Amino acid sequence: MNGLVIVDKPAGWTSHDVVGKLRRLAGTRRVGHAGTLDPMATGVLVIGVDKATRLLGHLALTEKSYDAVIRLGRSTNTDDAEGEITATASATEVTEEALRAAITDLTGTIEQIPPQVSAIKIDGRRAYKRVRDGEEVALKARPVTVYDFAIGDLRYDGDLLDVSATVTCSSGTYIRALARDLGAALGVGGHLSYLRRTRVGPYDLPQARTIEQLTEELVVLPLAEAVSAAFPRLDVSEDDARKIAHGGRLGATGLGPGPIGVFGPDGTLLALMEEHGPVAKPLAVFVP
């Protein structure tokens, strides 16, 4: 059962709900996920089972892609459709030219303020819990990278404008915040009304299975295949394999920066390693 399960998360489920379901299906409590999806969102959620949980923190840092619908003309306190409406304005005067200009300003490396209702911790407490307790939450902007932000169909619903979009971005980017900031830049407010994650690193929707499918057959991507798909691969000699099995280091590989999957001469996954100057140090060792 060591490996990854690529789930197509349904709407209404929290990421923790999916983890709980997979714990029952896999028969182990050693299950986790690589990057939270909000309950409203659907799509790719990468689940690690048993030893594969040691990969999750590294997989969570890979780039992600989304299909989204941004509703302009209405702001909410959560920056998505599940929150309370805080302001409205007519979006009928928003032109495609203005829309594209505002999107250009939100593409590349930007400073983004996360939504107040988020899982970010402030002095040890989640921001969303502080908001629910009536506190004013001021989160600091942080750098994120939006590699691609493209718009598709534009549909008017009265004074509101629904903008279909696809986004590819770095870890830590909130699509809700992009919707909020796009609406603010256009002077009409905005929120996220639909979100479907289509890719996490190398894992995409064609690989994902629904909860119903997984209940019928639990498909687990073996640990070695998961590492080969997500990270550069280094095959080593038997002598180096023995060294790595005991937590030893290697010389610089030239495959960095970032984690490297290291395999023995028989194809066995040995470890995940990372270069630090002239040496490569183990991040996680998978052989006894």
Order of SSEs: EHEEHEEEHEEEHEEHEEHEHEHEEEE
The first-level CATH class name of the largest domain: Alpha Beta
The proportion of residues in beta strands is 35-45%
CATH architecture title of the largest domain: 2-Layer Sandwich
Question: For the record, what is the CATH homologous superfamily label of the largest domain?
Answer: Pseudouridine synthase
- Give the strand tally: 19
Overall helicity: 10-25%
Instruction: Report mean pLDDT, rounded to a whole number.
Output: 91
Q: How many helical elements?
A: 8
Say what the CATH topology of the largest domain is. Answer: Pseudouridine synthase
Query: What's the alpha carbon Rg, rounded to whole Å?
Result: 21 Å
Class from helix and strand fractions = alpha+beta
Number of domains: 3
Task: Give the oligomer, counting copies of the same chain as homo and different chains as hetero.
Answer: single chain
Termini separation (Å)? 17 Å
Largest sheet: 10 strands, mixed
List unreliable stretches of 5+ residues: none
Shape: elongated
